[in-house]
Specification:
- The structure holds 2 protein chains of 2 kinds.
- Chain A is of the alpha/beta class.
- Chain A contains 12 helices and 18 strands.
- In chain A, the strands form 4 sheets. Chain A has a 6-stranded mixed beta sheet. In chain A, strands 11, 13, 14, 15 and 16 form a 5-stranded antiparallel beta sheet that branches. A 4-stranded mixed beta sheet of chain A has the order 4-5-3-12.
- In chain A, helix 3 crosses helix 10.
- The mean pLDDT of chain A is about 95.
- In chain B, helix 5 runs parallel beside helix 6 and helix 6 runs parallel beside helix 7.
- Chain B is globular.
- The chains are: A alpha/beta, B alpha/beta.
- Chains A and B meet through helix 5, helix 7, strand 11, strand 15 and helix 9 of A and helix 11, helix 13, strand 22, helix 15 and helix 17 of B.
- Strand 16 of chain A pairs antiparallel with strand 22 of chain B, so a sheet runs across the interface.
């Protein structure tokens, strides 16, 4: 199972699993944060034979990892080819359904959108990733819910989407099946260091001894790493989505565009997000609430424009998730120098789809000290050395005073 | 200085619109409590808007929204104009409210309440979101009075997932306000006041009441009401329960009781209890508390919102509604099969719910099949929203009205805890299913349109990795990020 327009991998995922088996035997690894990045890292490490404990302040996948659009087509990332190599095999490797589906369509309902999609198509084709341009009629033939307003689009012959909630639980269960421990409702209270290493992590569930630590706690990374004297610049924000009742199944469910991201689920629901975000303060204990707003109406409008033939469908839920962003919006995947057994991963708001690959990268950093399959040097934390304390204000990313008061 | 110059054009900022109108008081629900609140407000010289979702659209009724109509409404409910007149005429106080200066909007649902607080500060003010058959809009309020009443509690049993199994509140709505009940002969499940009043109302409206089934050994309601029911020759089937509703293409035709008796009816009316309608309070992040004597989860103290009538909690008459409905849930659970449906929208069976299994369109490899509620409980207290995501129970178009409460009861029983030990799954706006085209803001501001980005609009985020720190980076930023507003 590989994609049209992607390089042929040198190794199957099954061969990779066989190769790494036992490479981290007896290594005790504590993962702080049971979101998708932490769980995937834990799973990869457990496949390598490590004794993995995941600590989460609440329930696995409860924050943005389980609340996102489920996209898995991140051509901008150095992890992209690994993302594409792994996803079609994840159900079989994990033993649980993720609802992964292949390929994506992006469709335009304005000339400006069409121009931008044409640029993206060329950009991908230049990189060797095949994207086909579509006329309006071709889109209407492939997307039954599209309307006369559709001007054209593009067909990613790679990529896809999966069910975030099911996938997160799949990682967690697969990790348990490999002997890993997941401690829910167990916020981390501190780190115990000795000789330039973290030797134990203290949490509500007790003291967890470790040979290595992975900090994958989303917006809470900043406060956790501050306990270790490491500054990780992150800004949290709230983003919103809506979902409709089921529509008839489209041949390719991964259709978006018109300023939206999202997908048709395997049940048929149309789940879409996009639009303005709200910058928030980050509380060490996690967000006190994840409210949606009347932005629901603007999302509904854009879904109705994207799929005029679905405009009669009922919206049945809205929700919000809190994501963190780095100052340049790119991930941080890096192993620290001091304490040298701590690896940090923040995917800067784009972590779900890349998770099969980011877990591999973290596994490599923890076990081997370097990523084996791609260059991730530009994702190091050190690129933010010397960033001013007012970096959020400079970007207009500060939380409003009202949020601070609340 | 960063190129953003201290502003983020893609943040929410002031993009959320001001309300279309503003009232000193907005009252949601034009039952007796809502009408009284609206009249009192108008009497104090306040500008008052009173909205009521009745008559609800025929399509919503077909999805058992907001009550468990069980498909037993007549075709009259498809005629919106006739229904509007019928509903208006059924409540004389509506005219009085209008004469007192209250602005009354029927056929208008309130689907969300939004206010600034933890995690949200971008609202110009607190608003309540409304929708009618044509459009959605938002209004501001000084005081918000919720008088949303109570809705039907459904508990499944074999055959309950067919037309003809309905709720007592839905029957009352159809008989007393809509004049649109399609059934002829009913069997009532439960015998507390709600059930007894339902029997008498049905009898008065010319419906044949075949009997009242009670799991306990005696009628549970007011003695005088029970006597009136007996005087009307309506039989009680005590220490009994519906084992199966049997039917054909038009739904229920007869009911077999646990005792073996078979009763020919076209409608089973679930009158075990009512649930205070806390959807708006819960969806707005308001407080909710559990009070068995007042019907289950009721609103806690919520600043700026006043709850009146049944949505604030049923009258406390010393009856433990929760203990009573748990007894029913246990009994109907015993009478159910593994393949008895719990969630009708998503066709989740009892076995799949308790097994935490995915829907049938997904494969169940061996590790998946080995998972269950027990393994989930071993990881910590089960969360109903987590179980909802995995099984899809409560994720359908009825928005969990038919199964939310029974799922909470089943999970509590499975976890060997009291009701409430596993909390109720949360409600989300819109608290009524609303078509995209109705919900849509077709008049959005230029600010919103210009600032819209598919994600955060961070120019550096989508630059291909190989082009970072090369001359091509700037070109990509301009093409795919800075001009990205749509």
């Amino acid at each position: 199972m590989t994609y049209v327009g992607m390089p042929t991998p040198s190794e199957t995922p099954q061969e990779t699993m066989a190769r790494i088996a036992g490479t981290a035997a007896k290594m005790k690894v504590v993962i702080v944060g049971g979101g998708v990045s932490g769980l995937s890292a834990g799973w990869w490490l457990a496949r390598s034979g490590a004794e993995v404990t995941v600590l989460d302040k609440g329930i696995v996948g409860w924050e943005a990892s389980g609340r996102n659009g489920g996209g898995a087509s991140h051509y901008q990332s150095p992890l992209f080819e690994e993302e594409q190599r792994m996803w079609p095999h994840m159900d079989a490797l994990l033993g649980y359904p993720t609802e992964h589906q292949q390929e994506r369509l992006v469709i335009a309902v304005s000339p400006k959108q069409l121009n931008q999609y044409h640029y993206l198509a060329k950009m991908n084709n230049d990189m060797g990733y095949r994207v086909d341009l579509l006329t309006g009629d071709q889109v209407r033939a492939m997307v039954p819910l599209a309307g006369d307003n559709c001007l054209g689009g593009m067909h990613y012959r790679f990529g896809g989407h999966a069910n975030p909630q099911r996938s997160v639980q799949a990682y967690a269960w697969a990790l348990q099946d490999l002997g890993g421990r997941i401690c829910q409702h167990s916020p981390v209270t501190g780190f115990e260091t000795a000789g330039g290493k973290v030797v134990a992590v203290h949490a509500a569930s007790g003291r967890h001894e470790c040979d290595a630590v992975v900090v994958a706690a989303g917006p809470q990374i900043q406060a956790l790493m501050a306990k270790l004297g490491v500054d990780v610049p992150l800004a949290a924000a709230r983003a919103e989505m809506i979902v409709t009742e089921p529509a008839p199944m489209m041949p390719i469910g991964g259709v978006d565009g018109n300023g939206l991201y999202g997908r048709q689920t395997l049940r048929g629901n149309l789940a879409y997000g996009g639009g303005p975000h709200e910058w928030l303060e980050t509380l060490e204990a996690g967000p006190p609430a994840r409210p949606s707003s009347p932005l629901t109406r603007n999302l509904a409008r854009r879904v109705a424009e994207l799929f005029p033939k679905a405009a009669h469908l009922n919206v049945i839920r809205s929700w919000a998730g809190i994501v963190e962003n780095t100052p340049d919006g790119r991930p941080i995947i890096d192993r620290m120098q001091d304490p040298e057994n701590v690896t940090v991963i923040s995917m800067s708001g784009v972590g779900f789809g890349l998770s099969p690959a980011s877990g591999h990268a973290v596994r490599d950093l923890v076990v081997d000290g370097a990523c084996s399959f791609t260059d991730i040097a530009k994702l190091s934390l050190s690129r933010f050395d010397g960033i001013g304390a007012d970096w959020r204000e400079q970007r207009g990313w500060q939380a409003s005073k009202a949020d601070l008061a609340a | 200085m960063h190129s953003n110059n201290g502003t983020d054009p893609h943040a929410i900022g002031t993009k959320l619109p001001a309300p279309e109108a503003r009232y000193d008081m907005v009252v949601v629900g034009a039952g007796p409590a809502g009408l009284a609140a609206a009249l009192a407000g108008a009497g104090e010289g306040k500008s008052v808007l009173l909205v009521d979702e009745n008559p609800v659209p025929g399509a919503a009724m077909g999805n058992d929204v907001p009550l468990l109509f069980g498909g037993r409404m007549t075709a009259a409910t498809q005629n919106a104009q006739r229904m509007l007149e019928t509903v208006f005429m059924s409540e004389p106080m509506l005219e009085a409210a209008m004469e007192a200066g209250v602005e009354v909007l029927l056929g208008t649902s309130a689907w969300g309440v939004y206010r600034n607080g933890p995690g949200i500060t971008g609202l110009p003010e607190s608003v309540v979101a409304l929708a009618d058959q044509d459009r959605g809009w938002i209004v501001g309020y000084g005081e918000l009075v919720l008088a949303t009443g109570a809705r039907d509690l459904a508990i499944g049993f074999p055959g309950w997932n067919q037309p003809g199994v309905m709720g007592a509140a839905a029957l009352e709505r159809l008989l007393a306000h809509y004049e649109a009940f399609a059934g002829k002969r009913i069997l009532i499940v439960g015998s507390h006041d709600l059930a007894l009043e339902t029997a008498l109302l049905a009898r008065d409206k010319g419906v044949d009441v075949a009997g009242i089934v009670e799991v306990r050994s005696a009628p549970q309601g007011d003695a005088a009401l029970a006597e009136a029911v007996r005087a009307a020759q309506i039989p009680f089937y005590l220490e009994d329960a519906p084992a199966e509703a049997i039917g054909g293409i038009d739904g229920v035709e007869r009911v077999r009781l646990r005792s073996g008796a078979e009763i020919a009816v076209d409608t089973v009316v679930l009158a075990i209890g009512l649930v205070p309608s806390i959807e708006l309070i819960d969806a707005m992040g308001g407080k909710r508390v559990l009070d068995g004597a007042r019907g289950g989860y009721i609103p806690g103290a919520n600043a700026g919102v006043i709850c009146v009538g049944d949505c604030a909690g049923l009258a406390d008459i010393g009856f433990d509604h929760v203990a009573y409905r748990m007894e029913w849930a246990r009994e109907l659970g015993k009478l159910s099969q593994p393949d008895t449906i719990v969630c009708q929208c998503e066709e989740v069976t009892r076995a799949d719910l308790l097994g935490v299994q995915p829907p049938r369109y997904l494969e169940r490899p061996a590790p998946m099949a080995a998972r269950s509620l027990d393994t989930l409980i071993a990881d910590g207290p089960p969360n109903p929203d987590q179980i909802k995501r995995l099984t899809r129970a409560g994720m359908g178009v009825c928005q969990g009205r038919r199964c939310r409460d029974q799922v909470a009861m089943m999970l509590a029983m499975a976890a060997d805890g009291p009701f409430g030990s596993v909390p109720l799954a949360t409600h989300r706006a819109p608290v009524r299913p609303l078509p995209l085209r109705i919900l849509a803001d077709w008049e959005e501001s230029e600010d919103m349109r210009a600032g819209w980005d598919v994600w955060f609009g961070i120019p550096t985020q989508w630059v291909p990795y190989r082009d970072i720190d090369t001359p091509r980076e700037r070109e990509h930023q301009q093409a795919i990020a800075e001009g990205w507003s749509l």
